[in-house]
Amino acid sequence: MAMASERYGQQQQQADYYTQPQQQSQAYGAAKAATAATVGGSLLLVSGLTLAVTVIGLAVVTPLFVIFSPVLVPAVAAAFLVAIGFLSSGGFALAAASVLSWMYQYMTGKKPPGAAQLEYAKGRIGTTAREVKDKAAEKFGSQQRTAAA
C-alpha cells in the first residue's frame, strides 16, 4: 500500500507540474492582452485628440493665411530660394574641398582613391596622341614630298 500511495503522490506531482505552466501561460497571455488593449486604447485616444486639435487649429489659422497670403507667399518663396542657395553653396564648397584634398594627396605622392584609373587614362591618352601624331606626319609628310617633286 505504501508503494501505491507513493506512486499516487508522484502522479499527482506530475499532473500539477504539467498543468501549472499552462495556467501560467494563460495568465501571462491575459496580462499581455490587457496591456495591449490599454496601450492601443491610449494611442487611439491620443491620435483622436491630435486630429481634433489639428482640425481646430486649421480652422482658426486659415483666415489668417488668406488675409496675409500676399505677404506670406513671396516670403516663403524667398526663404525657400535663400535656403536652396545656402545648401547649394555649402555643397559646392564641400565638393571643392574634396577635390583640393584629392589633388593634394595625388601631388604629394599618396595614392588617393582613383589614382590608378587616372594613371591608366593618362597612358591611354598619351598613346593615342602619339598614334595620331605619327599618322598625321605620315600623311602630310608624303603630301609635302609629292608637292615638292
Automatic annotation (TrEMBL):
Taxonomic superkingdom: Eukaryota
Pfam families on file: Oleosin
Gene Ontology BP terms: lipid storage; post-embryonic development; reproductive structure development
Membrane-crossing segments per the record: 43-69, 75-102
Upper classification of the organism: Eukaryota, Viridiplantae, Streptophyta, Embryophyta, Tracheophyta
Keyword field: Lipid droplet, Membrane, Transmembrane, Transmembrane helix
Function (record text): May have a structural role to stabilize the lipid body during desiccation of the seed by preventing coalescence of the oil. Probably interacts with both lipid and phospholipid moieties of lipid bodies. May also provide recognition signals for specific lipase anchorage in lipolysis during seedling growth.
Protein name listed in UniProt: Oleosin
Localization: Lipid droplet; Membrane
InterPro entries, per the entry: Oleosin (IPR000136)
Originating species: Cuscuta campestris
Family: Belongs to the oleosin family.
Membrane topology qualifier: Multi-pass membrane protein
GO CC terms of this entry: membrane; monolayer-surrounded lipid storage body
Principal localisation: other
